[in-house]
Amino acid sequence: MIFFILIIIDISCIAQRSKQPISNPDIVLIYMDDMGYGDVDAYGGIDYITPNIDKLAACGMRFTNFYSSQPICTASRAGLLTGCYPNRIGLHGALGPYSKIGISDKEVTIAQMLKKKGYATGMIGKWHLGVTKKFLPLQHGFDEYFGLPYSNDMWPVNYDGKPIKDTNDFRSKYPPLPLMEGNKVFRYIKTLDDQSILTTLYTEHAVNFIKRQKNHPFFLYLAHTMVHVPIAVSDKFKGKSKQGLFGDVMMEVDWSIGQILKAIHDNGLDKNTLIIFTSDNGPWLTFGNHAGSAGGLKEGKMTTFEGGLREPAIVCWPGIIAPGAVCNKLACNIDILPTLAALTGAPLPLHKIDGVNILPLFKGDPNANPRDHLYYYYNKNSLEAVRQGSWKLVLPHKIESNENEPPGKDGWPGKIHMDSTGLALYDLRRDPGERYNVKEQNPDVVEKLQQLVEKAREDLGDDLTGREGENRRPPGKL
């Protein structure tokens, strides 16, 4: 639930396009948290403005069928950084402060891959691939790290910002929320006011990294904590939008991206910088006005319906990507690693990965279709759907549904209910909201997609049908 860019300020996209980038481009990967398909102007966001994100869309390529590898924090980030379905490498869910597992040292991250090509690597923001030192960024290819090791709601503070006194509430057992620098705690985040400065702190560290690394290739991974609840905004954006606190937070995140673009420009790097912008999963809808929008897609975070996995994705790279381009082809966050390998000449991992090189899509090749199909996984290893072309086959499974439930308000969650779905076929070209099951009219399509399902179960297994699979790897363990 990413994007490469160059550019900016008021310089013409077309003028920039004529300047061909050189080898070993600088790479900035911006990863949002719980931002939905409808949460930026370019994808239909309303009542607040995101002009800097919109510039990326205007001067680059906007994907309309870009997916996260799972609809939840840890799993999505594992897929992004390793190019693998998260269940292949044993990571799932959202790891907590006391988790005993994390990313294995046998996996290869984007940062480790790029370091072999001489890149300086920096990680700022939410990590969420393990808590103890052996799992943290500095041990997995990053030269620098500043941010939170896990989600900002994993702290002993209630939805109203007050300490939790009820010892029966599992959240009361959480330790103080650590903001880390390197492998050590920089300070603790104890209040909503503390959370309100995270976007600014991340931005300052990102700009500083760009300035310090401007003389050689760098990879900057900026994983914003926002707009994951509890959302918080600094005074400079408080009350600025017509959509309340959520809109204010989106405007501040957009400001952050503008500062990064300005730093790229001011340091003379905008002729050869890629920026990737996307999100880890869809909106956490139960939080109502503190959550984002799935843009009319079905459900949201923690489901494998389109609202949980389909994400905004914008890539801008002058000279390679035509300004204002739109790509309707299928792509996924696991495709970022092999794509970066292709454009930098970095070696791919020796073990099996699931991502494909989508560089031909960036270049606008109308005949390119590097990703033939995509599997939708959730939980530890549950295969819940498969997509090929515009067809999506949903397999029988249980879901935590938000539909027909009143959402929460002002930071408090609403209700959800357990539901289930049977076998269903959707034509996403005509029915992106997944409302009309057309399996009876298209038995040949169902049969074809079931063949893909069987291949996946042989390879990775499937908890829903009790299959073990042949090619899964264990996570790192304490």
TrEMBL record:
Pfam families, per this entry? Sulfatase, Sulfatase_C
Q: Where is this region: Disordered?
A: 453-478
Signal sequence interval, chain numbering = none
**In this protein, which residues make up the domain named Sulfatase N-terminal?**
25-346
What is the top-level taxon of the source organism?
Bacteria
Q: Which InterPro entries match?
A: Alkaline_phosphatase_core_sf, Sulfatase, Sulfatase_CS, Sulfatase_N
- Which keywords does UniProt give here? Calcium, Hydrolase, Metal-binding
Entry annotated with the keyword Nucleus: no
Q: Name one GO molecular function term.
A: metal ion binding
Per UniProt, the ranges with Basic and acidic residues bias are 454-478
PANTHER family reported for this sequence: ARYLSULFATASE FAMILY MEMBER (PTHR42693), ENDO-4-O-SULFATASE (PTHR42693:SF53)
Return the similarity comment.
Belongs to the sulfatase family.
Q: What is this protein called?
A: Sulfatase
Species for this entry: Ginsengibacter hankyongi
